[in-house]
Amino acid sequence: MTKIVVVTSGKGGVGKTTTSAALATGLALRGFKTTVIDFDVGLRNLDLIMGCERRVVYDLVNVISGDANIKQALIKDKKVDNLFILPASQTRDKDALTTEGVEGVLNALRDDMKMDYIICDSPAGIEKGALMAAYFADEAVVVTNPEVSSVRDSDRIIGILASKTRRAEQGEGDIPARLLLTRYSPERVENGQMLSVEDVQEILAIELLGVIPESQAVLNASNAGSPVILDIDSDAGQAYSDAVARFLGDQLPHRFVNVNKKGLFGRLFGG
Amino acid sequence: MSIFSYLLPKKQSSASVAKERLQIIVARERSTRGGPDYLPQLQEELLQVVRKYVPVDQDAVNIQLDRESGCEILELNITLPEEAAQQS
Questions:
Q1: Which ipTM was obtained for this model?
Q2: What is the pLDDT of residues A69-116, one digit of tens each?
Q3: Under 8 Å CB-to-CB from B57, ≥6 apart: which residues?
Q4: CA B28 from centroid of its chain's CA atoms
Q5: Any chain A CB within 8 A of the CB of B34?
Q6: Ranges of H-type helices in A90-147
């Protein structure tokens, strides 16, 4: 059965695209046939993060309008098997996304392409693009930074997920939504300068999928156009791997949430 | 850090200020969630009517919409200032 997952946040710049790329890549690495779709029509960026920007020929809107079929528009990832990217249109605006059109694309990915997972990378905001990315979802990942505006916007998005998805409209109840806290800095939390993972969880009251530490590896990965989850030596890459395992039902302890206590040697000679 | 800093009352951390502010605003926004779009305007216009007779604060009018098995209850709370209450 195909599962549709929306990666959303409300606020921009918190790590939706980074997370979509990592989650899709992680699922494909585990053998699931996965497509990641960029819903940010007009401001395409997933292609850059996935490193396939020069291979884009057709896009989501082309498929919706019938200019291309899904096979022509899907970009097969060069590094990871089972992984496909469907880029957003750069020239059109979000009104080009229609409920019927998006449903058609998702049906084609499910029935014709036999995808196991479809990851919908939502644009920021609560406009058409974000609503379309979430509408058909079976599950949601809410990306949040430990910062007041991001937490407030996430709460708003959680409310929208509870009322504006197809499942909610048909009275099938809320879709499961899980929290991914990104750009987390345990040192600043310990000094009382940053909301802790417990604080954010208490306010948003949803299950915790993972905590991604603030890390240079994320910028390195986007610079290189290679999802950070492939950087297996990095803290952020490992945190994303853990999150993917938890997404699939594994019970893993949360790493990177506490300050690494340096030993005497580290304190004397460490940077 | 001097020894006196241990004796002085500890300043509240910015993270706990953030948490408190968030808890309040999120609770407030959740209470109006799912309600009809006209609620804020209704609140504003009711406030104007009340103000024609009694000087009340912006946040003195509180509207809540509850749904109970098929019927909706619009609850309206207006807190009058103490002087106004004594006059009547």
A1: 0.84
A2: 999 999 999 999 999 999 999 987 778 899 999 999 999 999 999 999
A3: B79, B81
A4: 7
A5: yes
A6: 99-111, 128-135
